[in-house]
Amino acid sequence: MSNRSPGSPRAIRVFIVDPHPLVREGLRALLEAEPDLTTAGVAGSLVETVEGLATTGADVVITDLHLDAAASGLDLARELVGRNGNPGVLVYSVHDDLLWAERALRAGARGFVRTTEPVATILEAIRTVAVGRTWVSPAVATRVLQGVGGQRVAGGSPIDQLSDREVEVFGLIGRGYGTRDIASRLSLSMKTVATYRAHIKRKLVLGSATDLLRHAIAWAGSGLVDGRGSSPVAPVS
């Protein structure tokens, strides 16, 4: 039950998108405990979200970066950009990742937050997005906003060539996951994961599966994955 009292200003309506029912209900309980926040609806996929918003509307959509094999939180942000009554999209992920934060904003989201942040920080992010402002953690704000403004460092990173899904696969390879495990985590077939691996090797000019693994491990430990800085895929001796 909400803590709002009669006559109080209209609460910020938040639509929750996450493939896991337990997470959705946890977020709902968190929001309903706040006097100025309320849950507009919940969904587990892009399609369910679009259908739900058509009925309920919302001020903010908070979505997991990883939804299902068909779409991601970034796809959802792109889908909602330009719609009438367009809600602000706040993407969240367990990864404190400069690359994902930048991609989220480029996709049309107004914010990116880690699930490991304190509850107060996540609530601050929701309230910030609700008033039309952009929210990213101080650790990544300068680099992300410069990237969105087109002020990229000359040359950039080879990782920029990869699609969102290819970056997911590349990161999981670097964390030690095999094809079967990646397919399970991303709800993909093993054949599809193999295709992504081939695309990554081609785009990064890697000759073998061993080269792919070594470079993925190097990238996973470079600092780009955990937000400490930017690093291209460097040669591994």
Describe this protein's structure.
It is a single chain. The protein is an alpha/beta fold. The chain folds into 2 domains: 137 residues, Response regulator (Rossmann fold, 3-Layer(aba) Sandwich), CATH 3.40.50.2300; 63 residues, Arc Repressor Mutant, subunit A (Orthogonal Bundle). It is 46% helix and 12% strand. The protein contains 10 helices and 5 strands, in the order βαβαβαβαβαααααα. The chain has a 5-stranded parallel β-sheet, sandwiched between helices. β3, α3 and β4 form a beta-alpha-beta unit. α7 crosses α10 and α8 packs across α9. The protein is elongated. The C terminus is likely disordered.
Strand content: 5-15%
DSSP helix count? 10
| End-to-end gap | 59 Å
Number of strands: 5
Enter the CATH topology name of the largest domain. Rossmann fold
Q: Could you describe the largest sheet, including whether it forms a barrel?
A: 5 strands, parallel
Shape-level CATH architecture of the largest domain? 3-Layer(aba) Sandwich
Counted up, domains total 2
CATH class group of the largest domain: Alpha Beta
Structural class: alpha/beta
